[in-house]
Amino acid sequence: MDSKICKIFFFYKRLLRNMNYSRFLTAVSMARRPSPIRILTELQQRSPPSLISLAGGAPNPNTFPFHSATIQMKNGETVLFDETMMKRALQYSGSSGIPELVSWMKLLQMRLHDPPTAAYSPERGQMELCVTTGSQEGLCKVFEMLVSPGDNVLLDAPTYSGTLAAVQPLGCNIINVPSDQYGMIPDALRDILARWDPADEQKPGSSVPRVLYTIPNGGNPTGASMTAERKQKVYELAQNYDFLIIEDDPYYFLQFQKPWAPTFLSMDVDGRVIRTDSFSKILSSGLRIGFVTGPKPLVDRLVLHIQASTMHTSTFTQLMVSQLLQVWGQEGFLKHIDRVGRRWSTVSSSHCTFRAKLFS
């Protein structure tokens, strides 16, 4: 089914029912409040350079030992950190990410996924995005925002060991959903959910699962990729049972076949998808740049957790990536993705050929 038709179908099926995001939050997440000092930092970011603030605890950049830097790229282009840029790169920054990087990635998400929620009001689940220190930080914080002890959580079986490391300490009941070479099996998910009545979803203390986690492309450890048809069926079950979908998609940019498969975010007419992306596999794993895209009420809660923990992803690496993306533009970025994808496609073919010879 065409993705545009799917969006229209799900839109009318939903009948404009608003999401009750508070019912998905843990008690800890509900208790989080904005950090005053972090708010001051973000206000200072928007202030003119002439402002001298004594409120945010920012150190004097003139005491930093670094002056400037020039980063040479493989294609001969350069990213320049002059003295002014370096002072900013070594200073505190806002918890949701530096504004120019957040804006750039929002435009990229809209181009790649065309999420229906981009046009929604904030309270209805408008698409929002924040930068995280790798997608693993975002993933951990999403689970801590949504999963309480005793909750039933739906996971791909088998799934990424890092996910289990994040989820198991939360004291939840992990329900494994079988998968095959085409990813999570919707009929198996339907059979699991059949033990509950969808009408019970809103009842206090209900054990109906509120969260489903999946790696839809190149699933770790199986390498399976979910078909568009299966995603549509899983999304419809999410609507029927009112649970959120965590779309962990670090391998999205490494799909070998085009056009790329439609994502859960692209069909999210309800505002029930939280998506994690990563630059680790395509730019650098050491930069630790990931980003979370989802409904604004949930992303805002995630940012409150960042305010109280890591405070923000490294300003230096954010600026480095932002400067690179500004040089490339979207077209240059996508060309780079194609080059990386072709390389891994060649490696994959070579491995398959070697394995066939080995076991023939």
Automatic annotation (TrEMBL):
Cofactor: pyridoxal 5'-phosphate
Any one Gene Ontology molecular-function term assigned to this protein's record: kynurenine-oxoglutarate transaminase activity
Keyword Transferase: yes
Keywords of this entry: Aminotransferase, Pyridoxal phosphate, Transferase
Assembly, per entry: Homodimer.
Family: Belongs to the class-I pyridoxal-phosphate-dependent aminotransferase family.
Residues spanning the signal sequence: none
Domain Aminotransferase class I/classII large: 87-326
Name of this chain's protein: Kynurenine/alpha-aminoadipate aminotransferase, mitochondrial isoform X3
